Amino acid sequence: MNKIIIFILFLISILQSVNGFTDSDEIVVLYLEAPLFFSKFGTLLANVNAFHSGLGFYSLNSDETYQVDFVAVPGVLESILPNKIENGEIIWNTSGKVQFSNSIDNSGYWSSEKEIMTINNEIFETFLCWAQNYNESLSYYQLFDVLNRDTDELLVKSVVCNDFVWAGFNALYNLGGKYINESIIASRDIVTLYTRESIEYVQDGSTNIEVISFYEAMLNISIPKNQTINGLIEELDELFKGNFYLYVNGDYYNVTLDSSPFSFAYSETPLPIGERDLSNITLLESCHFQQSSENNIILNNKNGIGGGWIFIIILLSFTTVYLVGGILINKFKNEKSGLDLIPNKDSWSSLGGLISDGFGFVKSKVTGSTSGGNGYSSL
Question: Which pTM does this prediction carry?
Answer without folding.
Answer: 0.71
